Amino acid sequence: MSSVSGSLRSRKVKMTENEENYAAVLYGPSDLRIEKCPMPEINDDEVLIRIECCGICGSDLKMYSTGKCGFESVTEPIILGHEGAGVVVKVGSNVRSPAVGERVAIEPTQPCRACAQCRRGRYNLCPAPRYCSTAAAPGNLCRYYSHVADFTHKIPDNLSMEEGAAVQPLAIALHACRRARVRVGSALLVLGAGPIGVLCAMTARAMGATAVLMTDVVASRLETAKKLCATHTLLVTAAHSEQHVAERATELLGTAPDVSMDACGLASAQSIAMLATRSGGTVVIVGIGGERAEVPLTGAMLREVDVRGAYRLLNSYPQALAAVSSGAIDLKSFITHHFPLERTKEAMEFAKTGEPMKIIIHM
After folding, report:
1. Are the C-beta atoms of residues 153 and 49 closer than 8 Å to each other?
2. Measured by CB atoms within 10 angstroms of the end CB, which terminus of the chain is less buried, N or C?
3. Of 237, 234, 243, nearest to 276 (Cα)?
4. Residue spans of alpha helices (H) in the chain
5. What φ, ψ does residue 172 adopt, rounded to 5°?
């Protein structure tokens, strides 16, 4: 027992003298640079993590392409990335878990813990969350990163570091499916077969959904979705009206969907969801779109269709890790491409083509 306590008191892993911190820094639309950054300092409640890999998210891609995403915009250089995983190399004096040397997945938020939303347990709605890769906090596309200890999660021994990183979007999908009230026997329409859409479908299937229709404008993504989770797919073109797509969804599923999920953030997808969902069903908007959208809300209201948002994630990391560890959800097939840190810009440009499902950046 004393030897264990003694090792914990050392509270850091030896790093080589010349180790330096490099990061992918976004200055503006398409202006991404790999730069040397200061080594992060930690306070008594934080841990220093040697990042091994980090996934590229759709919101990273929007920030890279347009300089903004949702409430966030690039007003000064920011380090991108919020799907990080790595090894703890140093811990603050108050930290009891995780321990030095443990592999952790980073839940990319650091809520204030004092506001009304945090006290209600809805920390994802905290007005000052210090979310990774925003103006308030740096991202994980770097070699070393500091984070509050209790928003890191130990990666099970049977998971790779890449799977640990990809758990972040899975945790978002799990939160979205909870908000959607997916249950055994649910019929689901998912609009958008990108990473979040596919993970929402995979999660819904694991939760008992028996029929899942996925739509997209990219045929290759629908092929991947069919292999991973979808029971039906529908390629959408500009010639298809919203009403046509809604009607085809019912035809393919054999019933109007109980739940429809917008996983692309487009007003057209939200409109289709409201048109297609059965009376008394649920529409969940997961994708981040523009500030305003014109949608057929009155019709949805008259049919008592619940329209709900799903913002980031909430208490879903442990369950997401457990689902992957148990084999209930397969993330290995979901991860399709790998790039080193110095080729992050190339990876972003490749992601814009829509061909890859999940790209992992290795430090």
Report:
1. no
2. N
3. 243
4. 2-10, 58-66, 116-119, 161-180, 195-206, 219-228, 242-253, 267-276, 297-302, 317-326, 344-351
5. -65, -45
Question: What one-character DSSP code corresponds to residue 281?
Answer: -
What are the two backbone dihedrals, phi and then psi, of residue 197, each rounded to the nearest 5 degrees? -60, -45
Taking every pair of C-alpha atoms in the chain, what is the biggest distance, in angstroms?
Answer: 71
Distance CA 348, CA 31 (A): 11
Give the C-alpha separation, 130 to 209, whole Å. Answer: 34
Residue 353 domain-assigned?
yes
Q: Using alpha carbons, list the distances in angstroms from residue 13 to 88, 137, 160, 195, 299.
A: 8, 24, 21, 35, 60
- 156 lies in the same domain as 26: yes
- Whether cis (ω within 30° of 0) applies to the bond prior to 257 is no
What gap in Å lies between CA 286 and CA 267, rounded to an integer? 12
Say yes or no: 269 and 344 in one domain: no
In a domain, 344, yes or no: yes
Strand-pair category, 282-285 with 259-262: parallel
Question: Within this chain, do residues 236 and 126 fall inside the same structural domain, yes or no?
Answer: no
Residue 146 located in a structural domain: yes
Domain extent, residue 146, equals: 2-160+332-362
- Nearest CA-CA partner of 230 in 266, 263, 267: 263
Residues with Cβ < 8 Å from 201, sequence gap 6 or more?
188, 190, 212, 214, 225, 228, 229, 230
Could you tell me if residue 304 is inside a domain?
yes
Query: Which residue shows structure tokens 């109007």?
Result: 256
In angstroms, rounded to a whole number, what is the distance separating the alpha carbons of residues 56 and 6? Answer: 39
Instruction: Identify whether residues 57 and 197 lie together within a single domain.
Output: no
Report the alpha-carbon distance of residue 57 to residue 171 in Å, rounded: 13
